[in-house]
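Issue 218. Parser rejects a valid record. Input:
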Amino acid sequence: MAYGISDAPVDRLNRLVADCLTDRAFMVVEAFWRNGLWGQVVDHACSSGVGGAVARNMAARDVEIPRSAAIQLDSYRQHVAAATAYGLERAEPALECLQKAGVAFLVLKGAALNAALYDGPGLRPMTDVDLLIRPVDAGRADAALRTVGCRPGLDLLREDFYPRYYYEREYLLPCRPEVKIDLHVRPFRPLRYAVTLPDDAMWDEPMSVSYGRLTVQIPNVENMLIHLAVHAACHDAAELKWLYDLKLWLDRYGDRMDVESMADKCRKWKLGWPVRLALEQVDRLFGESSVYLRRTLLALSSCRAGWRDRLALAQSPRDATHPLAALAVNMLCTPGLRFRLGYLRAVLLPARSHLAQLYRGRHPGWPLVAHAVRIGRCLTRRFACPSAEPT
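Output the parser choked on:
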């Protein structure tokens, strides 16, 4: 089918780019030549974070592509390689400092995948370094990161909002361009998972990988698959980069995976529904189900989701643009009355340090004005452009 420059839907472009990442590349490029789709496909591949992987797959299969497309893909891959190397190098002293302070951590997302999955530079972009720590270590981790010059991001609603209710805190390294470390105390944002996931989730039998001069740990094969799948599902399972991560993880580590153990964890942690959604999307998009993907989906077929699981997952991609809806869904879907009431109090009555970031005036009664500004932002945020979440 021929699409014009402006009318190719995103899901169609996702499928075309996904074809470029499989053994169907020979067939789809013929259509690209005929229909003039190269510009759209290459632009979408780069904006989706898989431009480097497309370039390598085309070269590995000796697929002829236009010179302009080859130049764009190669330039993108070089840029990703340089940016990734810069971020990993700048973050290394901070990770070493955490290790010396005795703070256990797991490396997640892009930094972990560059170490354990992608075997070449420029294949997996990342704009920050994600670390998972135990909630009890949040204070020690903060102190350690500050000793190497890390600057925490904006204050959250209250001093105890992280780690009790919110899942991460950002720290900016003292370098230009800045590199961000996202310090997670649990792997996923929805408040429901703060109760359904135990604090030791993801921590059993981690894998060791090399990170520059350091040896760090990442989640084991089953836990990493769960993490990647739930993270993708919490963003509508629509980000091509994250779905390709899942495909490659199954291709690389499927033979080492204890599928039944993984499915048991999903049932215990109430994660079967998002993991299924993400893996089913991988199956639909890449269209070449491996035996490991089929086996995993079969093991998850008995996982059931209640309305709270479905509602929390449906709201998750919209939290930033619909904060009032996020508040309502968190109150409806999170177990534990006292926990929910504490969360509601923190949201409705933020600390002055947080209000001071919203309103700079310090006249008599300024906190009331700051509250009004905050409410106004919540009511109008749905009309603003949402910011991307880098990983």
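Fixed in the parser; the record now loads. Residues 319-383 form one domain.
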